[in-house]
Amino acid sequence: MAQVFDRSSNALARASLVLTGLIVIALGVALNSLQRSPWVTRQGQRPDQPVPFSHKHHVEGLGLQCQYCHTSVEKSSYAGIPPTKTCMNCHSQIWTNAQLLEPVRQSWATGESIQWIKVHDLPDYVYFNHEIHVNKGIGCSSCHGRVDEMPLMYQENTLQMEWCLNCHRNPGVNLRPTSQIYNMAWTGPSTDKPVWCTATVNTDGTSVPTAQGVNCVMKDPNAAGGNNVAQNEMPAVGASHAPGMTTAPMPVAVLPVNYVKFTGQNDLGKYLTAQYHIRTANELSSCEVCHR
Known about the structure:
Blueprint: H1 9-36, H2 38-41, H3 55-61, H4 66-69, H5 84-91, H6 102-110, H7 130-135, H8 140-144, H9 161-169, E1 195-199, E2 214-217, E3 229-235, E4 249-256, E5 260-262, H10 265-275, H11 281-284
Antiparallel strand pairs: 1-2, 1-5, 3-4
Helix pairs in contact: 5-6
């Protein structure tokens, strides 16, 4: 009886299996690259807003602080979008007839909110709290990039789960003194630009709130003219003064301050992780942190 399949069929079968495997792998790689691409993550995209608001002009040019517009960033889970009144505080006096500000004037006249397009938009099932991140030493630029250099706002990072987990597994690389939260140009300590930090306490030895628990300076506090003591003042008690004179404050406690010098972000991050009472990497990476 003649053979149904030629002897070469075995080679063709093996080749087809290998080819199928390669196609599956290629599709997997392509889909993985696609879901990380700006087409999906929307990185770098500048949506058309009702008003082409320039953070570069207002922040870098005019020196407005983030909190002036985003008033709830330190005390709420949302940074907050400023109401029209915030815009009109200035633009009722300047650029009052500018055509590009017509939506702002229309909103002010009608009471209807401007329909801004959200740039940093997390999925509804993800819980993100601005308050805890800001008060635990995460700066604005760590997530949003150099907003002060953006003529039009865009998304700097992917905001994907992998990106969030990379920080939660090692938050120290992004921690900074709370006094530098709104400093967009903060780059961390280096050998050329060290940072000195110390933990602060009240006069009775108790700790102060976490957000105020660390004092960092950019100049050597032990150098000539430096201040390496913490001094608290309160009004003097039982002192007599002439009529009309106010009670002058007098120092009641002078506490020596031991500053620690840091020349690298890793060491500073470890120090701040302890001082800010940051949870462990395992706790920060658990599902319930973000998914409620």
